């Protein structure tokens, strides 16, 4: 398309090309929109063979990797199986952006040949198909991050993370949908449209890594990569019943990936994995770190994978841990299913021999304000520049009906501030981080373990996946971005109208709390997955994964008891 | 002093109090200003006993620590010895700000008691007196960073680093002089005046950690702490013949220390040690990191001291390394003594069995421009706020005669920019960092070791300590702050008029190069120490210290051959 194309023309062109990239024989007759829960459809639609269903239903990435390494399953058949299921997912919930079957299968075939010829795997992710948020550049493919203006912007090289994943033997096979700018906790843009929640298509899949969330929810990918600046990995992970890790800044290389607000150094976004299994999260982190990303990304932290930290050397070797539950952030009281999930987790941990105390949240309002103001400092100019080429509208909402151009004359709050003013907010943020760290350290007085609290168990949102356009301020996740704490989302249960009846109104903390209370009714949210996040310290990825395994095992033990 | 005091009154008050803090019996008759080299004076002045001279002449911090731990020397006598020498230094070169003899000796006595009673040391720095740049808060003492407006600003708690040093058994005993704002490579402010270079008092001691440089030069402190945002540790270290380490951001805790331009997150300043011995540098880094600073400073990197990295596991175990020499940065050609130091280092390394190739500098002008523009983004507002209370002038030069208030109407280049504009500069900086990293990695093709260059050997400035007011743009150091590389300054030689004759003019690279050429004559610079810096990668402190030890041993071996 020429530079002077209108945004509508760019979008139409891209949509045509996207449709053409789907193999005709993978099209299925999808259920009508009135069917809300489509999670069973991939198994019912008839497109996948028994073996392909067995492969794609193998949610433990560790097992998939073993079978691939043992050549029990070839990469071509595993990639084909997940590709077919991903294309079914696309037809159900619109979760994909880039589809490149030929390229992916060629790579899978190469890997199969290599294994056959040499008897060894290329790397720790040998043969595994992986989905990537439409932000991680793959050479020769477009990256739009939801801007119509970026249609036709082909990457001239792989992002550093993609390079590393290829070297580890992974097979990137689809890219996934995002909201315009990446800065929304839902997934809608003017090019690819909206991604839906497979458990209930009237609900959002979350965002900004929402395409990943919906795709993996439908087992259309065993392992995906998202990014998280305010919850963008954890929110879709939780809304889709997945595991999702938000690492510290720089533990996973960002270099060469597209982003909005480039140069905003103070609260950087972090790339991280989403999966149906914790073994997927761990395999990803170990594999990526093993490639020494700091030799290719100047912002990547020189810190090897630490097996001692994974063995919880700093946390009593994982025996008799003390977890603290954040029941609410004193801003918005979570809905009944979230409280139930916290109770289930508490009970499971106690049953497993751990200690559970309450977490006292401090300054969550101020922390949320810090990220809001830092991002807002130059966001409008950034948006204007990004959208100028095509004149596309700037979305001011993720709701079904509104698509509003931001008008600077009527939205003075979006006008940028000076560098000096930005420094003042950033300085205040540094003080908040110190206060929170000291607060955490002081819990040593309450744990009885001789250590401060080992991890916080917190809601990732005050609700399960809400209806489209209703996912407000992501404060339950973004406070931990401001603090740069490692946080891992994990699934707990589903909204169950019989267990999760609406409660009588409480004394509302503020207007937002009242709005949130009114949002809930068990029927609207029914069947939505319910998850939580486990929060550890900065650069404690190994320990956070290990502690999430402990929580997960405890929950599974209770469920099967 | 009341809030409405004029800056002159504040300064006069502070000077009176500072003078009163010096024990009367430690005053000496100092040589006249016409005596330029005063380095021998502390030994000649008669204030220090034989034993006090033996103690203070023990420049190896490792040895000092052994003797302290063995109670061969008590902390009280070691602290007294260094204190007396520091007060002599003060009278010679004006290097101190806070003097608190009683407090320091009381602490030393406590430590002696502890060792006597328990038989064990408090920590790895037991009994060692340490000097701190006037930026690191000590409870109950003032911190001015050179602002008259900050006189009377008493710290209500210790900086995290001070806390840690106390826990390690150190005895903070003086604070040292700085330039107003900390943002100059010399040391002059309106409160404490100018610090001089002990080797030649017509020359600058460098800055901003210039008080440290001059004090340690005169062996008035065995180990000091400075800070470095553009060379502020390395420049005074080199100008005074010392070792000085600029660690990566966050390896040493900054929390609780005063600073200018707080909230400027993109190129943070880093605290680090200066010493007459590399054993001092190593002891400091090991001790500080052993206290897990990340549990008190949210910006401190969770990374233990790594003995494997110190053993150069990633650098061929220290055998047959490949160093690259940066002969000049293609902006300003260094003066003859600096070139001679590079040649000496090259020859010594080759003689020690290492390989030496040339380093090709790329984008040093752009890197320098990035830090200049990022700091300038809000610097003026920051200065205005800091100086508003007393109306003190803002220095626009470090020269002897000029003290000029910055006038915004005539200095439009100092007016701040928008947050969005700042992001663009920060983004360009990120790209430069990637380019430099790739450039370094590609040297694997030239080293013959199978590894990229192990370290760069670079000038820390294109000159030895120049006359006051003549230390221009510190580009040889600041490029490595932008890149966040670890860099350790080390001494090599002294300016020697017979060896370092002025050369005929070369083809000047630009006006700055010509100005620099014209600055040199061997007599002006005579006797000035000449040092260099060894530059390694981000978060490679252990390896950089170990490689500087290798260079240092090689130089000493050549000198004694």
TrEMBL record, chains A, B:
The active site is at 133 (charge relay system), 208 (charge relay system), 232 (acyl-ester intermediate). Substrate binds at residues 182, 208, 229-232. One of its GO terms (molecular function) is hydrolase activity. It holds the Pfam family Amidase. The keyword Secreted does not apply. Keywords: Hydrolase. Residues 77-544 form the Amidase domain. Signal peptide: none annotated. The keyword Hydrolase applies. Belongs to the amidase family. This is Amidase domain-containing protein. It comes from Fibroporia radiculosa.
């Amino acid at each position: 398309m020429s530079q002077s194309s209108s945004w509508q023309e760019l979008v139409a062109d891209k949509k045509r090309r996207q449709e053409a990239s789907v193999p005709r024989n993978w099209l299925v007759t999808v259920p009508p929109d009135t069917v809300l829960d489509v999670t069973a459809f991939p198994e019912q639609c008839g497109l996948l063979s028994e073996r392909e269903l067995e492969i794609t239903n193998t949610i433990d990435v560790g097992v998939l990797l073993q079978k691939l390494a043992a050549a029990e399953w070839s990469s071509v058949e595993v990639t084909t199986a997940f590709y077919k299921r991903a294309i079914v997912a696309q037809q159900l919930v619109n979760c994909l952006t880039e589809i490149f079957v030929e390229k992916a299968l060629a790579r899978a075939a190469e890997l199969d040949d290599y294994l056959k010829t040499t008897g060894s795997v290329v790397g720790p992710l040998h043969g595994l198909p992986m989905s990537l948020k439409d932000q991680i550049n793959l050479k020769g493919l477009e990256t739009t991050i939801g801007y119509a203006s970026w249609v036709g912007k082909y990457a001239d090289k792989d992002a550093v993370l993609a390079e590393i994943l290829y070297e580890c033997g992974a097979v990137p096979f689809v890219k996934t949908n995002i909201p315009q700018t990446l800065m929304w906790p839902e997934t809608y843009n003017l090019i690819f449209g909206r991604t839906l929640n497979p458990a209930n298509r009237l609900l959002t899949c979350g965002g900004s890594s929402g395409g990943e969330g919906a795709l993996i929810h439908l087992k259309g990918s065993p392992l995906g990569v998202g990014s998280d600046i305010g919850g963008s990995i954890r929110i879709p992970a939780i809304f889709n019943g997945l595991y999702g890790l938000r690492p510290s800044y720089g533990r996973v290389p960002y270099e060469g990936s597209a982003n909005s607000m480039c140069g905003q150094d103070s609260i950087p976004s972090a790339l991280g994995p989403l999966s149906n299994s914790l073994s997927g999260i761990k395999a990803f982190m170990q594999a990526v770190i093993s490639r020494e990303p700091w030799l290719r990304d100047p912002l990547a932290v020189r810190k090897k994978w630490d097996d001692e930290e994974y063995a919880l050397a700093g946390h009593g070797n994982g025996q008799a841990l003390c977890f603290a539950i954040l029941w609410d952030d004193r801003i918005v009281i979570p809905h009944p299913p979230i409280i139930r999930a916290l109770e289930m987790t508490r009970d499971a941990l106690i049953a497993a021999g751990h200690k559970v105390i309450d977490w006292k949240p401090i300054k969550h309002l101020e922390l949320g304000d810090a990220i809001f103001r830092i991002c807002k400092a130059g966001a409008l100019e950034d948006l204007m520049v990004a959208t100028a080429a095509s004149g596309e509208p700037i979305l001011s909402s993720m709701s079904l009906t509104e698509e509003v151009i931001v008008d600077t004359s009527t939205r003075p709050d979006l006008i940028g501030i000076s560098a000096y003013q930005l420094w003042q907010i950033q300085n205040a943020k540094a003080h908040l981080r110190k206060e929170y760290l000291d607060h955490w350290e002081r819990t040593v007085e309450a744990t009885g373990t001789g250590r401060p609290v080992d991890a916080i168990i917190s809601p990732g949102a005050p609700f399960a996946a809400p209806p489209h356009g209703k996912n407000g301020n992501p404060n339950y996740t973004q406070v931990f971005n401001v603090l740069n704490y490692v946080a891992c989302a994990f699934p707990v249960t589903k909204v169950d109208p019989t267990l999760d009846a609406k409660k009588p109104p409480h004394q509302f903390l503020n207007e937002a709390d009242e709005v949130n209370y009114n949002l809930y009714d068990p029927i609207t949210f029914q069947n939505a997955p319910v998850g939580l996040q486990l929060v550890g310290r900065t650069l404690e990825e190994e320990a956070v994964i290990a502690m999430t395994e402990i929580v997960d095992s405890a929950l599974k033990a209770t469920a099967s008891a």
